Amino acid sequence: MTLDIMMPFYGRFDHFQAAVNSVLAQTDPDWHLTIVDDVYPDLAPGEWAQSLGDERITYIRNEVNLRPSRNYRKCVTLMSGEFSVILGCDDVLLPNYVRRVGELIRQFPDASIIQPGVAVIDENGERSYPLADRVKSWYRLPVKGAGVWSGERLATSLLRGNWTYFPSLVWRVEALRKHEFRLDLDVVQDLAMLLEIIKDGGSLVLDDEECFTYRRHSSSVSAVTGPDGSKFKQERTLFAEAARDLRSMGWSKASHAAQNHWTSRANALSEIPAAIKAGNHDGRRALVEHVFARTTGR
User: Fold this and answer.
1) Which CATH number among 3.90.550.10, 2.60.40.150, 2.40.440.10, 3.30.70.240 corresponds to the domain 3-222?
2) φ/ψ (deg, to 5) at 286
3) Considering the entire predicted model, what is its pTM?
4) Could you tell me the residue ranges of all domains in the chain?
5) What is the pLDDT of residue 277?
6) Is residue 95 helix, strand or coil?
7) pLDDT per residue as tens digits for the range 230-244
8) Are residues 198 and 154 in contact, defined by beta-carbon separation less than 8 angstroms?
9) DSSP string spanning 203-261?
10) Contact in structure between 83 and 175 (CB atoms under 8 Å)
């Protein structure tokens, strides 16, 4: 089964080259890569990609800049297989990614989402283990080998701390098309999508075999929107809606996790020094508000 790899592109040329080359280096050649260039000002990356001459690579340049969520939606419309990954243009697949994902799909053919094993790298490609990823490991569900999770326990775990890595996730395309990425949550649209699929009865496969490296760096959308508080405003919206919806389903533990969102509030607390240093008074105020906010989900 050919794995559909979508790559929304807007970023550094060297990171983009590393991402594309990591796809070309797969031990299992049964993949198709679609690059969707979101009108990056420098034409050189697109020219380089087209010069590769590999029939498994399709390059598309948008007519206008769509920004992340709309570009994700466009990627979903272009998917042609049963399962697809929306690969970050700065992340790097390990050579076993396509092979391992194929094994997991065959082992768990009814899965809605697959979270393969992930390592973290920094801006220079060196292995890293910053606090954010240590926190993710604390909340991640236990797994030895590969296991499948669903229902309230999965939702509760993700709401306590989203331990998934969006660019590494393999999605059942039918589920993505049913729910769509939200345009009002361009920083936390991955968690919103996960929750919609879980509420709809979908399952997630968690695997411990490393086959993906996630690049964490200071210019990422999440890093930029932390000190100004905008990321956390979106999170409060999501948590309030989740608390309400999960309560109505009878998932009280998951609803309480959404109401309390302790990890998100602690994250906001950690961003306050950066906001103060930057003299961002509005950002500081928004962060303090989030730290002390406990949503009712009404």
Assistant:
1) 3.90.550.10
2) -65, -40
3) 0.92
4) 3-222, 225-291
5) 84
6) coil
7) 888 899 999 999 999
8) yes
9) EEEEEEEEEEEEE--TTSHHHHTSTTSHHHHHHHHHHHHHHHHHHHTT-HHHHHHHHH-
10) no
Contact 69, 179 (CB under 8 A): no
Report yes or no: 236 and 290 within 8 Å, Cβ to Cβ: yes
- Farthest-apart Cα atoms in the chain, separation: 55
Let me know how many helices (H) and strands (E) the chain has, helices first: 13, 10
DSSP state of 166: G
* pLDDT tens profile 104-131: 999 999 999 999 999 999 999 999 999 8
Q: Cα–Cα distance between 267 and 252 in angstroms, integer? A: 24
Give the span between the Cα atoms of 190 and 214, in whole angstroms. Answer: 15
Please give the single-letter amino acid code of residue 55: E
Compute the distance between CA of residue 70 and CA of residue 73 in angstroms, rounded to an integer.
Answer: 5
pLDDT at 296: 58
